[in-house]
User: Fold this.
Amino acid sequence: MTKEVVILTRPLNFVNYLSRPDSSALLSQGETVALVAFFGPLEVKPQSLRIDRACFEVNFRPKTGIQTVKDRFKENSIKSICETALLSALYPRTSIKLTVLELENRGGFEACAINASCMALLVSGISMKYTVAAVHCIVDKKGEIVVDPNHRQAKDAIALFTFAFDSVDKNLVACNTEGKFNMAQYNDCQILAKSASEKVFQFYKEEIRKIHENDEIVGF
Amino acid sequence: MAQQYKLIHPVKYYRDYLNSEIRPDGRETNKCRNVAVNIGSVTTADGSAVVKIGNTNVICGIRAELAKPKPSEPNQGFLIPVVELPQMCSVKYRNHSGANEDTDVFSCAIHDILVNSECLDLKELSIHNDKLVWAIYCDIICIDFDGSFLDAAILACVAALRTLKLPKVIYDVDINDIKVDNTILSPVNLKAMPICTTFMTFDDQAMITDPTAEEEDLSSSVINIAASKGDICFVRKPGGTPLSETQMESLFKQALDRETELLKILDDCFSQQNHTINQMVE
Assistant:
């Protein structure tokens, strides 16, 4: 059972790093770093053309070597999460592409990748239903919950969770777990992760404000 | 007339049924399909099982091979699920490009469920530290893909692991000599039996248990929850309709109930002489 609660959120940093893609996001969460490049809406290959919506593709590149089965699994999660947030019906007969590159994984990479992808989508200005914030948390050996742990803290975790919440109703969009846990532990983690997700939404707002402050000056 | 209506407006057809709180196949929203389990069906495999959930039909064969362990984990064996979605199983996989992604996702999910539930202690698969271990390959082939594949695959995998018998191996480390005695077979120590349940949401509100392939195509999100010994060992909700805490909690409760139901079927199956069982899940 849960004895003590440790809320710890590592610092978030964002840069629109690449110049050639339509938008990009280099997002670091503590020592975990993901780089996302966004392309779209682009011309679509005839075989993947959808008449009612955009064809959405995610390409996940691991730090070293070729894609493993685990990487495909992550790629699939990122794709479905972004697909839910996107209003792809507004871009029929086009394709939208995200390339996610793992730069450094020091715990909670999946959450970092989801946040970076969402940031890249936001910067690109593509229409979205809501934004998504992902939070990683663990239950450690002593039964304590740690939100957004670092590499060392996550080392001997008995259960790991990655939650993603939407920005409107703050409901659960996605969830991936590792390890064994009971319902009470899950509920505690979800509630804590939900409150921690506020920080991520706040971060999105601040960063987007910074970008558009500069735009106004140029415009006038 | 109903048939044409279904073809033209599949979503509305389904919605009309749900408005009267029944599904097109006659089930209520929280009811599962019939489950049939047959064990030891493939005599050439070291362990095997066939599972049917409604029309979904999955066969699992286990082969045990001797292997050298990874240098990073010298005292651990391997448990490797391999999912195959042949072209015959569904129109979705008529060309191989679509199947590849899904086979990887399912293989990874099955591996996660088996490892997270700690059903096999990989250390017990070790024969000699850093030299020789068992590699257990679970080949899972889908014959008929009619929704809730992961439920059937996990059940087949667990049933097959329960039938698995490993021969005695005598390993002489000095001369690197391996002797396999096929007359002495011993079952593996299965510590847990995880059970997976698939749920989906329709129209962002209705919660549906054990969907068919037709229903999965109309769904707004699919959720997999695996339970083992009253605990949860796997939750996968990849996007789709956002759910509240109370909704998630009701799904967990259903998943835990399903665990006891299916384990009972599995136990009945192993206690019967002919090792086949067809059972209604009420």
